[in-house]
């Protein structure tokens, strides 16, 4: 929605079922995930509304209180109030936010506009889909649980703030479609191709061990089936590595396309876990080359 003085009103909504056992942590993760689209557009969130589904007659109300507190605290960290919302009696808990924000139209980032010669930066480690699945199966280590909660609950606000003084060509957040799925969209929308080095990808602790034991999100397999015709896979890569590059993320990081010099500035100022994972090329027979 276009406002005065070149501003746009932007809005996003997202919600899902619990992916961790602690209600408060679930609330934080769901809120961070809902806020991510605003940051990926270069916008500033203004306020949020809760969306809640909860089996009010089957689970203690204290669980719902903890979920909502987690969401409220994460919204406060983003500097916005939760001004209301809507709830329904549901068989399974669900939580998320409707987030309203604003952005200067001339400075809004899109998942298009990447240019040949750009460098690709990813701001968070991958593997949330693997560890979330392991949590559901009761096979995740405490180290992996702690690391995935910390990553998923982290706002993309700081990364977006570091980007605002740089020459950014394209941005998207990496969520359910995985790295390959979201990069495919960026390449398609920009009319270019890309090259990713698997060895440069950063994964959360225990992801490889869990994946090798057979732990893999169903959404990840669907992601790979969807994107594989657009990807040229290096002959040294295994099927497991193909899947990990397509791992379905929750509250993932920002995938950024920008000139090399600007990328170096960002990685140096923002620090880990951000890292350069590849580059943009002229359009070729495949949208993505994964080496």
Topology, please?
Elements: E1 7-16, H1 23-40, E2 44-54, H2 61-77, E3 82-89, E4 94-104, E5 119-122, H3 128-137, H4 142-153, H5 157-163, E6 170-173, H6 178-190, E7 193-196, H7 207-212, H8 218-227, E8 231-233, H9 239-245, E9 254-258, H10 260-270, E10 275-281, E11 288-290
Helix pairs in contact: 1-2, 3-4, 6-8, 8-9
Low-pLDDT windows of residues = none
Output the CATH topology of the largest domain.
Phosphoribosyl-aminoimidazole Synthetase, Chain A, domain 2
Mean pLDDT: 97
Distance between the terminal alpha carbons, to the nearest Å?
41 Å
Question: What is the overall shape?
Answer: globular
Main pleated-sheet profile: 7 strands, mixed
Q: Helix tally?
A: 10
Instruction: Kindly report the spatial arrangement of strands forming the biggest sheet.
Output: 6-9-5-10-7-11-8
Order of helices and strands: EHEHEEEHHHEHEHHEHEHEE
Instruction: Give the helix level as a range of percent.
Output: 25-40%
Number of strands: 11
Oligomer: single chain
CATH homologous superfamily assignment of the largest domain? PurM-like C-terminal domain
Please compute the radius of gyration using only Cα atoms: 19 Å
CATH class of the largest domain: Alpha Beta
| Amount of beta strand | 15-25%
How many structural domains in the coordinates?
Answer: 2
Class per helix and strand makeup: alpha/beta
- CATH arch. level architecture of the largest domain: Alpha-Beta Complex
